[in-house]
């Protein structure tokens, strides 16, 4: 089932109905829409969105945000993690979706030195507090590997909290931020994956370790054919949602330096060896890409926005022609 994550079109600031119209025009069968795309989370509004998605034969699931008070992305406006999760469960049930995406932290939290163990303890406690509500609603909390943890940490959270109501949102672009091969991360999380974000990356050698950049599918150095075949074999009923993020410069992953590993001193050597092979065989992006700049003129901002649409549609075309044949 080919679909999109609406973050791919974030600069357009479309509401859920506009996004559903776009998905229908692109002949897309599933979308994961950020909660920000819904102008309201009142039941009547959500029911209207659900009915519209069903009329277009599009599977609709929501994406929610951070669920850890230890993370830089946490907002006190969300109350407590348990309260935030409870509201997400209610919204997801109204939408008649099977899961909703959340994340725990991000690369900035890893760099700041907060350990996975600290996050795991808090998040598992919050998840256990909402177990009854999730199971009664038959809704799963899908935790994204968000560039903060190795996939084994996400597995630990799912298994400690309970896989009857906690699952994984597999993201193929984020593992490289933690020096993990995207295919290895898929194989690790596959038993628990219920939704996914798919995108391509270039990964290549840098004096400090590696450099990575997210690109349109087909422009990168990831073997997307192999990854897609494994995804379809291991997760046959999971929507393949493109989350295309371009317009960002290459990012250095200094995995050759001790500081990079200060929060993850037990990373498996076999996994790092797989990432090393990916780095050795990779290459920089040699195409053209606009990167946001400060105080850009309105014409430049408009071009950045259009780049989002073009790169998403190029990725959809590539997936249909080369990955879903």
Question: Helix and strand layout, with pairings?
Answer:
Layout: E1 2-5, H1 16-25, E2 30-34, H2 43-55, E3 59-66, H3 81-94, E4 99-103, H4 107-112, H5 116-129, H6 131-137, E5 140-144, H7 151-161, E6 166-171, H8 182-189, E7 193-197, E8 200-206, E9 209-215, H9 224-234, E10 240-242, E11 251-253, H10 269-281, H11 298-323
Parallel strand pairs: 1-2, 1-10, 2-3, 3-4, 4-5, 5-6, 6-7
Antiparallel strand pairs: 8-9, 9-11
Amount of helix? 40-55%
CATH architecture: Alpha-Beta Barrel
Roughly how many Å apart are the termini? 13 Å
In the predicted model, the low-confidence regions spanning at least 5 consecutive residues are: none
Quick one: CATH class? Alpha Beta
Q: CATH superfamily name? A: Divalent-metal-dependent TIM barrel enzymes
Average of per-residue pLDDT values: 97
What is the ordering of alpha helices and beta strands? EHEHEHEHHHEHEHEEEHEEHH
Q: State Rg.
A: 19 Å
Shape: globular
Number of strands: 11
Number of helical stretches of at least 4 residues: 11
Fill in the CATH topology. Answer: TIM Barrel
How many structural domains in the coordinates?
1
Features:
eight-stranded parallel beta sheet; alpha/beta; three-stranded antiparallel beta sheet; TIM Barrel; 325 residues
Description of the molecule:
The protein is α/β, with parallel strands linked by helices. The chain has one domain: Divalent-metal-dependent TIM barrel enzymes (TIM Barrel). It is built from eleven helices and eleven strands. The strands form two sheets. An eight-stranded parallel sheet has the order 7-6-5-4-3-2-1-10. The chain has a three-stranded antiparallel sheet with strand order 8-9-11. Strand 6, helix 8 (182-189) and strand 7 (193-197) form a beta-alpha-beta unit. Helix 7 packs parallel to helix 8 and helix 8 runs parallel beside helix 9.
């Amino acid at each position: 089932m080919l679909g999109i994550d609406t973050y791919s079109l974030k600069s357009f600031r479309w509401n859920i109905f506009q996004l559903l119209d776009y998905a229908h025009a692109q002949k897309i069968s599933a979308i994961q829409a950020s909660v920000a795309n819904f102008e309201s989370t009142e039941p009547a509004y959500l029911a209207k969105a659900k009915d519209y998605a069903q009329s277009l034969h599009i599977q609709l699931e929501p994406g929610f945000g951070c669920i850890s008070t230890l993370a830089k992305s946490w907002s006190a406006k969300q109350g407590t993690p348990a309260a935030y999760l409870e509201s997400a469960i209610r919204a997801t049930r109204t939408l008649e979706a099977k899961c909703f995406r959340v994340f725990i932290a991000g690369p900035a939290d890893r760099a700041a030195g907060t350990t996975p163990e600290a996050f795991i303890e808090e998040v598992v406690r919050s998840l256990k507090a909402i177990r009854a509500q999730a199971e009664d609603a038959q809704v799963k909390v899908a935790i994204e590997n968000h560039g903060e943890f190795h996939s084994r940490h996400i597995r630990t959270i799912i298994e400690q909290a309970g896989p009857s109501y906690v699952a994984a949102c597999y993201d193929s672009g984020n593992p490289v931020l933690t020096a993990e091969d995207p295919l290895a991360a898929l194989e690790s999380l596959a038993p628990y994956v219920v939704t996914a974000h798919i995108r391509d990356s270039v990964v290549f050698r840098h004096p400090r370790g590696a450099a990575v950049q997210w690109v349109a599918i087909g422009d990168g150095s990831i073997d997307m054919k192999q990854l897609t075949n494994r995804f379809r074999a291991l997760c046959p009923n999971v929507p393949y949602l493109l989350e295309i993020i371009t317009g960002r410069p290459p990012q250095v992953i200094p995995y050759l330096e001790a500081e990079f590993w200060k929060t993850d001193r037990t990373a498996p050597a076999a996994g790092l060896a797989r990432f090393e092979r990916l780095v050795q065989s990779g290459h920089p992006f040699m195409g053209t890409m606009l990167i946001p700049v400060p105080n850009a003129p309105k014409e430049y901002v408009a071009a950045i926005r259009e780049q989002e649409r073009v790169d998403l549609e190029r990725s959809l075309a590539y997936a249909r022609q080369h990955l879903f044949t």
